[in-house]
Every structure is written in C-alpha cells, then in structure tokens.
Amino acid sequence: MSDVFALVLLPHLKVQNANAISGPLTWGFPSPTAFAGFAHALERKFAAELAEGFAGVGIICHHFEPQVFQPPGRRTQVFRLTRNPVGKDGGTLALVEEGRAHMEVSLVIAVRDYKSEGDGKELAERLHHAAQGMRLAGGSLLHQAGKRYQAQWWPLAGDVEGDARIFRRLRRRLLPGFALVQRDDLLAGHLAEMRAIQPDSNALDALLDLSRLNIEPVVSQADEADAPVKWEIRRKPGWLVPLPIGYAGISPLYAPGEVENARDAATPFRFVESLYSLGEWVSPHRLNDLSQLLWTQESDAANGIYRCINRYSESLNNLVLANFKEQQNG
Q1: Angle formed by the axes of helices 203-211 and 184-197, to 10°?
Q2: Pfam families given for it (predicted)?
C-alpha cells in the first residue's frame, strides 16, 4: 500500500468480558467495526501527532473463550449471566442479558505518517500505553508485562519487494493465530449456485447455508437403485463465519436535534440495521500482502451504507489473474 509508511503491532492484547453479540443474528467473535472503532478512538487521541492518521487495522485472534455453559439435559449453550448490582434493599436485581467473552488478539495498525525509527518506536509505546486505558469491543484490557507484549514499530521499505519481505517477517510474529478476512466472493459464488437450483434464493439464504452444519446424503453407486446411502457433512472451502460488518440506513438522514432522545444533538441522525457478510479465519502465513490483512472504514451517506471492508478477495483475484497472465506469456 503506497500510502502506508509503517505498521504498529499491538501484540497479544488480553481482553476480559468483550462483547460477544455484535448483531441480531449471530454471536461469537466481535465485529470488525469494534476493532476499527478502537483504532479510530486511538487515532483521535494522537490527532496532534498524526496528520494523516491510520490506514486500517488487521485483526489476529490467538485465543477466544466465550462465557457460556451447557445446562444438564440440554443440547444448546447459554451465556453465563451476572446479577448485579445489588439493589437498595440489599437484594439481587434481575439478570442482565449480555454475551461476554475473554480473548487474546493482536492488532496491526497501518500508519500513513512518516516517522523516524526512534520517533516511531516511541509513538508505538505511547499508543500501547494509551490503549491500556481504553475499552476494546466493550471489554477491559489486562496489563501484561514482558517483551512478548510490548508494542512494535515496523517501518516499510517503500517498494514492492521490500514491503513484501517485511510483511513476511511480520507474519511469523503473528503465529500461532488466525487472521479475520472478508470472503464476499465466496458468498456471491454460492448465491449463484443456489439460484441455479432455486431462483428465488437471496443473499441471506446463501449466508445461512454457508454458515450452518449441512449433513447431506451421498450415494456410493449412482447406477444402482437400491445402493446404500451414506450421510456426510458437507465440506467447506475454509473456516467460514457469518460476519456483521456495519450498518445500512433504513430512514432518511435527519438534521441534528430533529430526533428526540438521540445520543448527540449536534450530529445528523439515521435509523439503521446491521449489514452481514461472510468472513474467514486464515493463518497469517497464507496472506500475500498487507492489503489482505487490513480492515478499513467506508461510508456512503447518500445510500446509507456505513461498513468495514477487507480487500482479501480482491487481492486474491488480482493474484490469480497475474499468475494466469504470467503463464500465458510464458
């Protein structure tokens, strides 16, 4: 990425009680919007020193522990809920319905501003120190001592080969773990396959079909009418997950103060609903360049679209096309 001069690695952040419910349809790992919002809040704290700001954030998960349990005699899991605070009479209040999870993540933040190596290392340490007092996906960051948990400054070379060499070194630092990327290409391809059989299928049907566990019959010998049927789990092309990536407007954009009881009377207001896409967990060593890792924010106020996007599919398609042209020329 030509507009990125360096990367800040915040390694192995341990988060306690992060929000595990990012949308109305799913629960689990927090949405990319939570991490993009965390990076944006961090950027605003250092607005005086970062004239160009950040260019995106990469999300790598090392450990994820949802706070759930399975009651005896039930097949489904339920959240471990808390009953707090204590009422004025000393009695317990009603349960607060919330989903929580403990996790350990590493964040790779792309910086557009040029800094010398000394200033960059100092900036990375100060960013890490400021992050310790912030919330990440609604959870609290636990302080961790040791070199493994220190922030790192990774200046880029400024050319394609040099940046690729630095990114390969960075990938090894992110192991063991899994990077969260967007796979809207798989979602579009699966929707086309479903519409060939069921023309009225929509994107939600394709998302649910890719996300659930599908057990299908497989006939060992198709020529025999009485051939035994074997039931098998449909194999997926990767570790796919439904992913809330932002919001879509369902109302006009109201002027500041026009809607009563809004959080901010100085900002335009719009009612929205969640946007979903398809995500995939991939090992960092399978990423080819920085653009496949980073999540960036995108807004289209005219159409009411506010979302986070990842260029993994686009970069993957470009790489396949480049390899194809190289083979044709060869």
Answers
A1: 110
A2: Cas_Csy2
